[in-house]
Design goal:
It is found in: Cell membrane. The structure is a single chain. The protein contains 21 helices and no strands. It is mainly α. The protein has 2 domains: about 40-255, Growth Hormone, Chain: A (Up-down Bundle), CATH 1.20.1250; about 285-485, MFS general substrate transporter like domains (Growth Hormone, Chain: A, Up-down Bundle). Helix 14 (about 290-310) packs across helix 21. The chain is globular and about 80 Å long. The chain starts with 11 loop residues before the first helix and ends in a 15-residue tail after the last helix.
């Protein structure tokens, strides 16, 4: 069982899981001003470190989106890229979905590595399986080699969802923790868009070589990013921990270290010592309370809706979708537009989530996703089954409808499931509950991606879209009656941050 929260876009959950209250001394006026100035400078260092870290996530997002432009090429009867011949529908479903099995395995592997070697070293190891994906993709001569490549891409993805939130929770100022945590969703979506764009202009082999630049840049720049103070303290490297603390708080000399900042570092040491001395083990009895059972049910259910509303599968197979729903735009151009809309939606969610609240935004997002998919399913059914000329006058409709659907998905259902669970679970089982939640989404994602191409063959695109719409509408009902509002709920005491 992993020993940390894996929170996609709000890293406060990792801190909540091991929260402890320490009394801090109140700073004087001059100390407070000096602390504020250092905090402002420290934000720049925190943003720099977060930006460097997210280079590998940007590349991983591109790996996720790689299927959209290049799977149709691999499946083309005219392709001569693989000695095994054109990829079949069944093989294509494995290429799309086996990444999720890699993520499931990677979540456990990197959960162990982060405990064994610390956060920075574990982050640096992400380059190995991720770079291997691009290299094997370039060299692949059979579909089985592509299976291996995609599995390795998933392995690094599993590490990302484990390690990134821990890094953000350790280094960030509490005032910008949510913003820094949200970079994870932004850069992942940006990677999708990047692949949609370059996949429209670069050849199969050229794109694999080009994308190796990002993990290489990540490797170089990580040399300038210190390990987190918490990791250094856990490993007994107190002097290194102090230097790291000074870097992330932008304290250039010992003379600049105010009493408030000294107290913060002392509290951090106490925090680490307290946690290392805890021997309380999570037992089955801890999961039997009503709060625990409800929280875990909601967490797993939201992960189910996140995947089986169908948007992730649609983004993964975007070019194939647009080729079949009746859009007159080229499939790759349509995918680029949709990828851009997704980023706009993710940015919008940062504003709406604290204005509207989690529950309201989840209901709006899930209902809007279902409605958009239902309308598109009806349009596709009319296109396939009705010989009406007026349909051709609305060939713009698929891209508009699906882009609106992706926007509505992105403002709520895309990110809220990943950080609402720590707001619901009892403190003691927070780690275990988040681990279960992350494991469940990798399983759901695998199933969703594996069966999508097969379902399209059996019940056609309109049938698949209609099924996803029905699941979304059912999700609205369950969210309305079961999911509580957690807006404004305190996760940790201020002194523990």
């Amino acid at each position: 069982m992993l020993k940390h929260c894996m929170v996609h876009s709000n890293c406060q959950g990792a801190s909540r899981c091991k929260a402890i209250r320490f009394k801090a001394t109140k700073p004087s006026g001059s100390d407070e001003r000096a602390t504020t100035m250092a905090s402002t400078r420290g934000v720049r260092n925190q943003i720099f470190a977060t930006g460097v870290m997210n280079l590998i996530n940007l590349s991983h997002g591109a790996a996720l989106g790689w299927v959209s432009p290049y799977l149709p090429i691999l499946m083309s009867p005219d392709q001569n890229l693989l000695s095994t011949g054109p990829v079949t529908v069944e093989q294509g479903s494995w290429i799309g979905s086996i990444l999720c099995l890699g993520a499931l395995f990677g979540a456990f592997v990197y959960g162990y590595l982060v405990e064994k070697f610390g956060i920075k070293r574990t982050l640096q190891t992400l380059v190995i399986p991720h770079s291997a994906f691009w290299i094997i993709t370039y060299l692949a001569t059979s579909v089985h080699q592509l299976y291996l490549a995609r599995f390795l891409a998933g392995l690094s993805g599993g590490g990302i969802i484990v390690v990134f939130p821990l890094f953000i929770a350790d280094i960030s100022d509490k005032k910008i923790r949510g913003i820094l945590g949200s970079f994870l969703a932004l850069t992942s979506n940006g990677g999708f868009l990047l692949m949609y764009v370059i996949g429209d202009v670069l050849s199969y082999h050229t794109v694999a070589l080009t994308m190796l630049a990002l993990p290489l840049l990540f490797t170089v720049l990580m040399c300038f990013v210190p390990d987190t103070p918490q990791t250094c303290l856990k490993k007994g490297r107190t002097a290194e921990a102090e230097r790291s603390f000074m870097f992330y708080r932008a304290i250039r000399t010992q003379a600049e270290k105010t009493s408030a900042l000294r107290q913060e570092f002392i509290n951090m040491e106490k925090f680490i010592k307290h946690n290392s001395g805890q021997n309380s083990r999570v037992t089955l009895a801890d999961f039997k309370s009503r709060e625990a059972k409800l929280g875990i049910f909601i967490g797993v259910f939201l992960m189910f809706i996140n995947q089986f509303c169908g948007i992730f599968a649609i983004l993964t197979y975007a070019a194939t979708i647009f080729a079949g729903v009746g859009s007159t735009l080229s499939p790759n151009t349509s995918a680029i537009i949709m990828g851009t809309i997704q980023i706009v939606g993710t940015l919008s969610s940062f504003v709406f989530v604290d204005l509207a609240g989690r529950k309201v935004l989840l209901i709006i997002s899930t209902f809007g996703t279902g409605l958009g998919l239902f309308v598109l399913a009806v349009f596709n059914w009319l296109t396939v089954n009705m010989s009406t000329h007026w349909i051709k006058d609305y060939s713009w409709f698929p891209i508009v409808s699906l882009s609106a659907t992706v926007y509505l998905f992105s403002i709520g259902l895309c990110s809220i499931p990943f950080f609402v669970l720590p707001e619901l679970l009892p403190l003691k089982i927070c780690n275990a509950g988040n681990t279960l939640s992350m494991v469940s989404i990798t399983i759901f994602a695998f199933i969703s991606l594996k069966i999508f191409p097969i379902m399209v063959e059996v019940i056609y695109i309109y049938g698949v879209l209609g099924l996803y719409a029905g699941i979304s509408f059912a999700g609205v009902a369950i969210i309305t009656f079961i999911v509580p509002e957690t807006k404004g709920k305190s996760l940790i005491s201020p002194q523990s941050v």
